[in-house]
Write the C-alpha cells for this entry.
Amino acid sequence: MKKITLTTDAIHQGDLILVNPAHGLKAETQERLIPILESAPSVLLQERAAQALERLMAAIDGWQGIAPVSGWRSFQEQNQIWDSTVRESGLEFTKKYVAVPGHSEHQTGLAIDLGLRQEHIDFICPDFPDIGICQTFREQAAAHGFILRYPAGKETVTGIAHEPWHFRYVGVPHATFMARAGLTLEEYLCLLRQYPYGGPPLETWEAEKEYRIHHIKAPAGITLELSETKGHSVSGDNVDGFILTEWRKSDAQ
C-alpha cells in the first residue's frame, strides 16, 4: 500500500478547486506557469493545462482560427481589469463578466479566454461563435480536460453571465463526465459529495478506462492508504476537502 498525507493547505490546490463569488483563492498559484504559444508569451497557464491545450489545438489545427486572449492573471492584474472595466462599462456590466479580484479563475492558471482570430478582439467579451473552428474546439474540449465554465442557463449557479469564450481545465475524466451530464463545476462537486471516501465511489468509463471517484471531507493531516496497482490523482476542492480519482495503473497515461 502507498500512503499519502493530505494537508490543510492542499485543500486549496489542484485541478478541481472551486473558485467563484463564494469561494476565493487563499494564495497565488505555486504551480509552474508556461506560455501557451511562442507568439503569445504573456498568455500563461499551469503546465498541465497548457500541454492539454496544445494537444487539443494540434488535433483540430485550432490556432489558425482561434486566438489566445487571457490566461493566468495576478491579483494585481485582476484588480486593474476590474477597476478599468467599471470605469469604461459600469458596475453592472463588470459584475456580469469580470470576477472580483481574489475570486477569479484566471488567478489559478487553469482558465483560458479564447477568441475568433480577427483584426479586433474584445478583451472582456471576445467573439467565440457556435460555428466553425470555435464550435469544433467546444465539441472537443472535454476530451482534453477542458469545460465551458459559464454555460447559458446556469448563471444563478456560477454567479457569472454566460461566457462562451471562457474554458477551464479540470482534467479527464471530470471534464467528459461534466460535459455529458450538463453539469457546472459547482454542480459536479455537489454531486461528488454523495460519494464519500469509504463508501461506494462514483464510477465512470471515459475513453475505455474505468475511473472511481470519491469526495474526502478531510481534517488536517489525514492519511490515505492507496493500492500500488492503481493510479491516482488528488485535488483539493477549495472548500473543505478533496477529490480522489483512481484508475487501474496499467491504464494510466
